[in-house]
Specification:
binds ligand LEDWP2DD; HSP20-like_chaperone; 2 domains; alpha+beta; four-stranded mixed beta sheet; Very-long-chain (3R)-3-hydroxyacyl-CoA dehydratase; Immunoglobulin-like; EC 4.2.1.134; rod-shaped
């Protein structure tokens, strides 16, 4: 019996080869696939020249995986082969001259860029279906609602402080420096007490923030606010209060709205940039302003003996709290280093992942 070659149509994607063999009602035996070739042997079916035995073999341009999916239907034989490496082939066969029985399958045909778009769309659908399969946290809405409200309250509080100080600066000029504490301290107390939640939030798994950087930030500010300014009347009308409060609030009026938008899955480019860039000048300036406040408070603590630790008479009268603050000054710069590194990494991570998303 004469053995004929069937008409074979082909198309490709980055990861697969599709072959459509024009053989109806075929009983097909697949030739043993190798890493670089595939075909059919002894296929009995109805082809272009009627009922007959058909076979073909193709030597591929690049290696393929040995497992082959083959399906014989009333109209045709479909063969799907996976490529060894997921990349676009410039042609199907090793030999540049295409065999006469081979033609493009225009029903499946895509050029490289269309196939890439199809791949991206598939990946997107897969991602969505995986996400929807992951069990939803039943308290997600509650958590997001709480975080949104927290950030909103902090945003309003710090905006009030910032606007109040800016307006007073315009109206009173330098004179406004000296009564910053009396006009804004209550609101600052409120905001900074609330900020303790920022240490609790990562512990409760509500946000991905590192516990340690948040603790350094909140504890560092609260020592300055409640101990250095809050406990010493003499410090409260010093100009340094203005600079400390102004630097704190300048970052927070951008950080909290950024978090608010994150809670509702939104991201404004400019706001994100401000949140991840403003700290570069503001954080060191803030720590310098805080250090000036601590240094100015040292003689006052020495004089007033506030928080001094009584010592046995052989060792002297008492140990001034200013020694603790001198140690704190060293910790401040250590804290600055830790948080500066943390914020730098956060910035890198944010912009690296965004770049990856764009490409
Ligand atoms: C006895 C005491 C000892 C202590 C000794 C310590 C010494 C202290 C020295 C240090 C002194 C510091 C004093 C401070 C001075 C100043 O503040 S000066 C002014 C300038 N300051 C700043 O710029 C700092 C601002 N602060 C911060 O950025 C943070 O507080 C941080 C903890 C330092 C870092 O923020 P972090 O949250 O880690 O980074 P993010 O990238 O923003 O967040 C991570 C992810 O978590 C999400 N998230 C975080 N919080 C919230 C929230 N409230 N609501 C919703 N979502 C939140 C955020 O969206 C991120 O998610 P992804 O984007 O999905 O990653």
């Amino acid at each position: 019996m004469q053995i004929l070659t069937p008409q074979v149509f082909w198309a490709q994607r980055h990861g697969e080869i599709f072959l459509r063999v024009e053989l109806s009602d075929a009983s097909v035996r697949q030739s043993d696939p190798t890493a670089t070739s595939c075909g059919l042997t002894g296929a009995q079916g109805h082809g272009a020249k009627g009922d007959n035995q058909y076979e073909f073999s193709l030597e591929f341009l690049e290696p393929v995986k040995p497992e082959i999916h083959q399906k014989s239907t009333q109209r045709q034989v479909d063969i799907k082969i996976r490529k060894q490496d997921e990349r676009w082939w410039e042609r199907l066969t090793l030999r540049e001259k295409k065999p006469l029985f081979l033609a493009p399958d225009f029903d499946r045909w895509l050029d490289e860029s269309d196939a890439e778009m199809e791949l991206q769309a598939k990946e997107k659908i897969n991602k969505i279906s995986v996400e929807s399969r992951v069990r939803k946290d039943p308290y997600m809405g509650l958590k997001k609602g709480y975080l949104f409200m927290y950030n909103l309250v902090q945003f309003l509080g710090f905006s009030w402080i910032f606007i109040n100080m800016t307006v007073r600066l315009f109206i009173l000029g330098q004179d406004s420096f000296y009564d910053t504490f009396h006009t804004t301290a209550d609101m600052m107390y409120f905001c900074q007490m609330m900020a303790v939640l920022e240490v609790a939030n990562p512990l409760l798994g509500l946000v991905k923030t590192g516990f340690f950087p948040a603790m350094i930030q909140v504890a560092g500010r609260n020592v300055i606010l409640f101990v250095v300014f809050g406990c010493l009347d003499e410090m409260q009308n010093k100009a340094v209060v203005f600079f400390v409060f102004y630097l704190w609030s300048s970052i927070e009026i951008f950080r909290y709205p950024f978090y608010m938008l994150a809670c509702i899955g939104t991201d404004w480019k400019l706001l994100t940039w401000l949140r991840y860039s403003l700290w570069i000048p503001l954080y060191p300036l803030g720590v310098v302003a805080e250090a000036v406040a601590v240094i100015q408070s040292l003689p006052i603590f020495d004089e007033t003996r506030l928080f001094s630790v009584p010592l046995p008479s052989a060792l002297g009268h008492s140990l001034s709290f200013s020694y603790t603050l001198q140690l704190y000054l060293v910790l401040m710069f250590l804290g600055l280093f830790i948080n500066f590194r943390h914020l730098y990494k956060q910035r890198q991570r944010r912009y690296r992942s965004r770049k990856r998303k764009v490409h």
